[in-house]
Amino acid sequence: MTTSNHMSRPLRLHLAPDPSDGLLDGAWWPYSHDLETELADLVDHFPPEVGRVSRVLFSRPDWQTHPRHIQVGRGMMKTGSFPSDDSHVVLLKLAREQQLKVMVIPPETTPDAAEQLVAEALAPTNRRSAPELIAHARGSMSS
């Protein structure tokens, strides 16, 4: 987990050791549905050893607003949304042409459920998409 000094709270981002191994390259548990605030925090505190985020594509239903640009520490960064819904995912385009597919865990998820989702998403044997994992977790919580 990476620590965010900007917001005085941990950046709840977990990345797979080898991003090319599974369906998902990581899991991110933002604190709110405010895309501008959460993305700025993610971009500004993204682990430098992994790379620098140069652009983000997001799933519109996960967020309250849908800006085309956000203010980050180094200036304005272009964002975009998926042409079709792919809920619970952000694509992080890194400066070195790598792309990471990261599951977005809904902010209202309990800590125990979020921890379980991270473990499932990053498991090398995972064959479920982000929407499938979250739907399964919600089904387990209501049982």
Commentary on this structure:
The protein is of the alpha+beta class and 143 residues long. The chain has one domain. It has 3 helices and 9 strands. A 7-stranded mixed β-sheet has the order 3-4-9-8-5-7-6, with helices on both faces. Strands 1-2 form a two-stranded antiparallel sheet. β1 (2-4) and β2 form a beta hairpin. α2 runs antiparallel to α3 (130-142). The longest helix is centred in the last third of the chain and has 13 residues, at 130-142. The radius of gyration is 14 Å and the shape is globular. The termini are far apart.
Task: Provide keyphrases for this structure.
143 residues, alpha+beta, seven-stranded mixed sheet, two-stranded antiparallel sheet, DUF5994
The secondary-structure element order is EEEEHEEEEEHH
* Strands ordered across the widest β-sheet: 3-4-9-8-5-7-6
Q: What distance separates the N and C termini?
A: 30 Å
- In helices, the fraction of residues equals 10-25%
